[in-house]
Predict the structure.
Amino acid sequence: MENKRTVMKDEVWSELDLDPAFAERDRCRKAGIPVTIAETERLLIRETVMEDVPALYEMRRKQGMGAYMEPVQPTLEEEMKFMEAYIHHMYAFHDFGLWTVLERESGVIVGQAGLFLSKLLDEGVELGYMIAPDRQRRSYALECGRAILDYAAEVLDLAEVHVLADRRNQASVRTAGGLGFAEYEIIQKDGAEYLHMVWKC
């Protein structure tokens, strides 16, 4: 039995060794270096670091920004503790998560976007995006969304990605449509109606 376990373990590590890109991402995370997810013409998408948290926290607390998202923690101190655990576990375990979006030219944090496990769909991976109010209407959500979908298909080898948009959030619905998501069904949960949209590689 012990020999069989050893062989299986060796096979797993051999598989990982065949993916140098994964090994490099793993090396960066262990060294505390945020992995760059994508660079577009105007944006940089990378894993969140603790220095980002205060800016993201304040962004999500602005009027109207948190209406269709998971709420932040009651205080910045609690949010810092939550995000420390999130950064440490989420990226390493799933190889994806919500990431920080920055303007390449200015280096300013302009939003948060990425992939996360759905709470309503069994084994479904959802795309989420949030752009700061003063950077909206510049097509940043479309630009980073396209880059993340490319990453999902080419790096993570995902066959499909989902969006569950509150039907009242028409901006999110329009963005998902612009990214090529197709309407699939309506899901009702806790008094809200969600438009389930699907993107296939």
